[in-house]
Amino acid sequence: MTGPDTDFPKEPAGRRDNPALGILMMVAAIGFLSSMNLFIKLIGPDYHPMQVTFLRNLVAAAVILPFILRIGGAAVLKTRRPWMHGARALGGILGNACYFYAFARLPLADVMVISQAVPLFATALAVVFLNERVGWRRWTAIVVGFGGVAVAIDPTGAVSTASLVTVVATVFWASTILLMRSLGATESPYTVVFYYMAAGTVMAGLFMPWVWATPPLEVLGFFVAAGVLGALGQYFMTHALKVAEASVVSPFNYTAIVWGLLFDLAVWSIWPSWPTVIGAIIISAAGLYLFRREAGLKRRAGS
To answer: What is the pTM of this model?
Structure first.
């Protein structure tokens, strides 16, 4: 995961026979989303995370909704499950707000590393809430991955509030994956994205009378850049999943860690701490094993 907005309920219909293009588009998508996080950090802690979420969503919606409507037509407005869309949007904006709080206060790489635990939390939550069966191999990967999270947030006891908020954000986003799995059974990906963008913007907007602070022109430019980059990340990820299998392109989510390390070093001259590096290795290894194991189980189930 790259943090916010990096998952879809199912692969869009269409041919999926170009893995090289899919990988290229996924890497580009993660680059756009990581650059969005850079601008969120540049905005800084002076603005409430819910205001950051609102303006980012508003700009992204203005950019991407016309494309969704053009591709999906009026059909994207039809839904059988409005409350499920609302729950997914609420989880998304709360997750975004928590991530944006953390980005303003921690090195980018620290947040990126912890956010990669989303698949681990999603698999664990699916056992609790959906009664999904998970074998001992995947449970081992989950436990090892959680150990990596503990290392990444600093096992010495000096755990910051922002690190804990990042873990909370990761849980929120894991819960949205479960909601998207359910929505994917009846809704098109374009419908899910439409209602996430629309409902998420409205929900975040409800907080504005209490948290709004008018930004100067320079900071407003950062908000616009974050929204545009977020929309581009969504667009490229959608098409990556259209031209290649999810099991092929999803592991390239982990390039977000590289982007975070590069941005920290280039912009703030921050080198990653050893707990961050070791945690990244453990979480990435556990997540990649889960991707591989689940892909193998799906292939066997379909054969």
So the answer is: 0.89
